[in-house]
Amino acid sequence: MSTETPVIPDTMRAAVLRDYDKGLQVETIRTPRPKAGEVLIKVTACGLCHSDLHVIGGAIAFPLPAVLGHEVAGIIVELGAGTEHTGLEVGQQVAGGFLMPCGQCRHCAAGHDELCEPFFELNRLKGVLYDGTTRLYSLDGEPIQMYSMGGLAEYSVVPATALAPVPEGVDPVSSAILGCAAMTGYGAVRRGADIKYGETVAVVAVGGVGSNIVQIARAFGASQVIAIDVADDKLEAVKAFGATATINSMTQDAREEVLKLTNGRGVDVSFEALGIPSTWNTALDVLADGGRMVPIGLGAGRQTAEVEINRTVRRSQSILGSYGARTRQDLPAVVDLAARGIINYDDLVTRRFSLDEAAAGYEALRNRAVQGRAVVDMSL
Ligand SMILES: NC(=O)c1ccc[n+]([C@@H]2O[C@H](COP(=O)([O-])OP(=O)(O)OC[C@H]3O[C@@H](n4cnc5c(N)ncnc54)[C@H](O)[C@@H]3O)[C@@H](O)[C@H]2O)c1
Ligand SMILES: [Zn+2]
Ligand SMILES: [Zn+2]
After folding, report:
1. Looking at the structure, do residues 331 and 315 belong to the same domain, yes or no?
2. Where does the record place the Enoyl reductase (ER) domain (predicted)?
């Protein structure tokens, strides 16, 4: 860790979304500075998540212009006021969680960071931090909104509540995926499903988040983890992350295959990690009596899925939505699982793009050409 005070330039490069037709464009904007309770990081990498795609395509409303990117790794370069008891220090390598708890609301007080009201009201709806303003401005002084911390930039202001120190030996680039793909997987398994040792599991859609659900479910003792997707290459790849069987739902009947694999019972827990009606149906179809279905996929705007009333009632099945995780408790746990080699975050990152190539990276994600996770590596 360097003890020298880093030099922070006045301007930086960032991928800005101003117009849905033009997509992400790299611009030089003012370097943000942290206010109370916040930390400035020099970004080393930022993961490309499907949730950004919903915003880039205009399917999920968000104020523009904006800097997206909510899954970051970086080095702390400046601490704002009121951060002296956080344990964070200049020079530290950190991972940033997308769900940035305010730390003050009633849900945060109860430890339920994932329900933080100001996070939704201020950041997700307005693109600002908890004083109601953004930290990002164009060279002309025009405000630019932040989706989470606005990680697709050379520097990023992150509330201290959303940062976890990363020990030496954890890769500074691929650890970017810990703050969303892995943390969401952890939240789904540990909080949403609360998996018990020996339970059987199915994961519908094994992209960046789904692959993490697979490996974290195994780490929590699932006896079987059945991966269901429509892409054979993704199904093949997820075997290395602990999938015990795979089903291509384009060519196979997912319910029939899951019943064959589970003595006709179905799985105790099914996860849905895409956010479309048909994958919800598949996740419900493969569920055992008394089972829990945990959806984490976000719909492209307002979407609904059908749930069979009598089956849900008579078979005592539950649907337990899961958003992110309890960042302050769970992000350090996820970093620890990564550091101890219990989850494999490094091999999950299969593609690296430069900041200038961010738009091309999302295009690849949209075209389903990314296995695991792609990241923007700021050193490229
Ligand atoms: N709940 C949360 O906190 C949270 C956090 C992050 C992402 N998300 C959401 O999770 C979803 C997944 O994100 P991601 O980054 O892993 O996406 P991704 O693009 O990496 O993965 C999507 C996967 O779905 C598969 N797929 C496509 N069509 C399918 C179908 N009909 N049946 C089965 N599989 C199909 C693809 O082959 C791919 O493997 C998105 O909706 C995203 O917005 C939610
Ligand atoms: Zn995400
Ligand atoms: Zn809160």
Report:
1. no
2. 23-376
